[in-house]
Amino acid sequence: MPRTSVAKVTWSWDPLKHTDEEPTPRCLARVQKDIADFNATPPPCGIFIAPDDVDITKISALLIGPTGTPYENGFFQFFK
């Protein structure tokens, strides 16, 4: 039987340490595309997003717990 190995992650990224970074034009274009794609197709039931009016890279999200799970009808809000 072949041996398998699991790579160990040795880095992490903390968005709170990068609050003053200016997004690149490529980043802004990608975020705009992702928001447009999200709004163009019906999003999964119970998922709502609201980009910041000034900085679209900051997005708030609201998820409603799915039926038949311990999270049913729960509200889970993620802030920008």
Defining traits:
80 residues; alpha+beta; three-stranded antiparallel sheet; 3 strands; extended
- Spatial strand arrangement across the major sheet: 1-2-3
Question: What is the number of beta strands?
Answer: 3
- N-to-C span: 47 Å
How large is the count of helical segments?
1
Give the class from helix and strand content and strand pairing.
alpha+beta
* Rg value: 18 Å
- Note the quaternary state here: single chain
Largest sheet descriptor:
3 strands, antiparallel
Question: What best-fitting shape do the alpha-carbon axes yield?
Answer: extended
Mean pLDDT comes to: 86
- What is the succession of H and E elements? HEEE
Give the amount of beta strand, in percent: 15-25%
- Residues in helices, as a percent range: 10-25%
Enumerate the spans where pLDDT stays under 50 for 5 or more consecutive residues: none
Domain UBC core: 26-80
InterPro entries: UBC, UBQ-conjugating_enzyme/RWD
Protein name: UBC core domain-containing protein
Give a brief description.
The chain is α+β, with helices and mostly antiparallel strands. It contains one helix and three strands. Residues 26-80 form the UBC core domain.
